[in-house]
Design a protein that fits this description.
This protein is of the alpha/beta class. The protein folds into three domains: 140 residues, Protein-Tyrosine Phosphatase, Chain A, CATH 3.90.190; 256 residues, FAD/NAD(P)-binding domain (3-Layer(bba) Sandwich); 148 residues, FAD/NAD(P)-binding domain. The chain contains 16 helices and 28 strands. Strands 6, 7, 10, 11, 12, 13 and 24 form a seven-stranded mixed sheet that branches. The radius of gyration is 28 Å and the shape is globular. The termini are far apart. The C terminus is likely disordered.
């Protein structure tokens, strides 16, 4: 009897003998599930003998018989799943060869995961035959709901997805657009930094998704889990297939909270907070208000991350509050970043360093948060030294503002649409996919080497819209994205540095006449950040309005 492990809870095997049952118990299995009918063939051990042998070995025993692989129905899968859920684990399931047991497991897995992924697990466990894999394909086709088809499918109903849809509708009201999004609410994420400073109501950052969509755009509630770009098709988590003439990837970025052991478990308590979630941003302000002395630690993970300035914006606003309350001298403020400077664009570093000195902040460059112990208030960092070697250091904290590592969404990074790092691989000017011309991408999920900010999305959406329409018309692409991004760095209540830049750090101030020195923090910068940008977001960007945006024509010679 060969045992094949499918996952942590379930293994399968051929029909065991009495001695095999004792061996299974010795190997650590705690339950048996028989998927073969009693007396299926002459000489088969009767179920009573198997049950008795299982009891002697202190194993639970359940019979969930199916007569053949082709006779398996959803009710059989349900009975198998219920048995496994209720039995002590791990479970050893068996039939004549193990195929029926493996099939029951696989059909349950296919309710949540792509068939190819399940088939790969079967092959890795040596539990998949060609016949079984073909059966899984057949079951998948039979169980799929009717396919959806649209001219333009946008994956993601965040800022990038809505802005792209709105820009498209302004170019063609009759365009058939569907937005695929599992959530029913939309968040204005740039506002969370202000929420964490007590300067913006959290409720003002959340609105129902439906009314924000442009008129005529369909909402498909679901999550894309698999892409088939060769056939212009994708699969949703519930099994529905969606076909498209053109696809826009606006999937955002995935916050990997579990990458730092202990962080997810203590987030929102024990002095550990983050302005990167709707739920915990108010806790940041609660901690800042409450802290009267001790150590406040602010962290930034390795790039790329959404809004690279957000980790330090939070710190400056907290320091400004403590200074106003005459507490700053009693609080040791630390900023830990894997980078070598306070910002990635050199022109803005002197001004930021001025505020670092002003608040007495202690920067720790080459320092990356790797573990958090909330109950003891200990944070562990990996510190890269000047000789390239890494050492670990644990710091006590009274307040910890943590930002997790970030990566491309799983469905994207595991698809043929991604580059080696998992991002949607696009031309940085046209934002068209390099291998699949009917696919475009914008926002945090795309590979363009720009800052991942909402301001970047505002510039990218018209580029994607105009170029996609040109593609649909069979015409050459006409518009280029220059890498514009903006990071309004709120260095104090009432002052912000409007860091606006493009590819390779080129300064791209949008209102140069108003900002006499675009590399200094100003009162005007604060007013723009606090009052003008939110209105631009809701009434401009999400409505497809292109106020103050410069149209950059595509230079075909340089592009080629």
């Amino acid at each position: 009897m060969e045992i094949r492990k499918l996952d942590e809870n379930v293994s399968v095997s051929s029909m065991p003998g009495i001695a095999d049952i004792a061996a299974a118990a010795a190997a650590g299995y705690r339950s048996l599930v028989m998927n073969r009918p009693d007396r299926e063939e002459p000489g088969q051990l009767p179920v009573l003998a198997l049950r008795s042998a299982a009891a002697s070995a202190n194993l639970a025993f359940v019979s969930v018989p199916v007569s053949s692989v082709t006779a398996i129905h959803d009710t059989d899968v349900d009975h198998f799943v219920r048995a496994v859920a209720e039995l002590p684990k791990p479970v050893l399931a068996f039939c004549r060869s193990g195929t029926r047991s493996a099939t029951l497991w696989a059909l349950d897995q296919m309710r949540r995961r792509p068939r190819e992924e399940v088939a790969s697990d079967l092959l890795a466990a040596r539990a998949g035959s060609d016949a079984l894999l073909k059966k899984l394909e057949s079951w998948e086709r039979r169980r799929q709901p009717p396919a959806l088809a649209h001219q333009i499918v946008i994956i993601g109903g965040g800022a990038a997805g809505i802005a792209a849809a709105a820009s498209l509708k302004r170019r063609g009201k009759k365009l058939d657009i569907a937005i695929v999004e599992p959530k029913r609410v939309h968040h204005y994420q740039p506002g969370w930094t202000l929420v964490g400073a007590g300067l913006y109501p959290r409720a003002g950052t959340e609105r129902p998704l439906g009314p924000l969509l442009p008129h005529g755009a369909a909402l498909v509630e679901g999550e894309a889990v698999r892409f088939d770009p060769e056939h212009s098709q994708l699969m949703l988590k519930d099994g529905r297939l969606v076909s498209y003439a053109t696809l826009i990837l606006a999937m955002g970025i995935e916050l990997d909270w579990t990458a730092i052991p202990g962080l997810a478990e203590t987030l929102g308590e024990n002095g550990v907070t983050s302005n990167y979630t709707f739920e915990t941003a108010p806790y940041t302000w609660e901690l800042a208000e409450r802290l009267k002395g001790g150590r406040a630690v602010f962290t930034q993970p390795p790039m790329p991350i959404k809004c690279a300035g957000a980790p330090q914006k939070t710190m400056y606003l907290a320091c400004d509050h403590w200074r106003a309350k005459d507490r700053l001298n009693d609080i040791d403020v630390e900023f830990h970043t894997p980078g070598a400077a306070m910002f990635g664009v050199k022109d803005f570093i002197p001004e930021l360093n001025r505020y670092v000195d002003h608040y007495g902040i202690e920067p720790h460059f080459g320092s990356r948060l790797i573990a958090v112990d909330g109950p003891t208030r200990q944070a562990t960092f990996a510190i890269t030294q000047t000789d390239g070697r890494t050492r670990q250091e644990t710091r006590h904290f009274d307040m910890l503002h943590a930002v997790p590592p970030q990566r491309a969404p799983r469905a994207l990074r595991e698809s043929k649409l991604s580059d080696a790092e998992g991002w949607a691989e696009v031309d940085p000017e046209t934002l068209q996919h390099v291998d699949f011309p009917n696919v475009f991408a914008l926002g945090d999920c795309c590979s363009a080497p720009n800052a991942k900010t909402a301001a970047a999305v505002r510039s990218q959406a018209p580029v994607v819209a105009e170029n996609l329409v040109q593609y649909l018309n069979g015409a050459p692409l006409t518009r280029a994205y220059d890498g514009y991004g903006s990071c309004p760095l709120t260095v104090a209540r009432g002052k912000a540095l409007l860091a606006e830049f493009g590819y390779k750090g080129k300064l791209l101030p949008s209102v140069p006449r108003l900002l006499n020195n675009p590399v200094r923090a100003t009162r005007l910068g604060w007013l723009i950040k606090r009052y003008i940008i939110p209105n631009f977001y809701w009434a401009g960007m999400l409505k497809g309005r292109e106020w103050l945006l410069k149209r950059t024509p595509l230079n075909s010679s340089s592009h080629d």
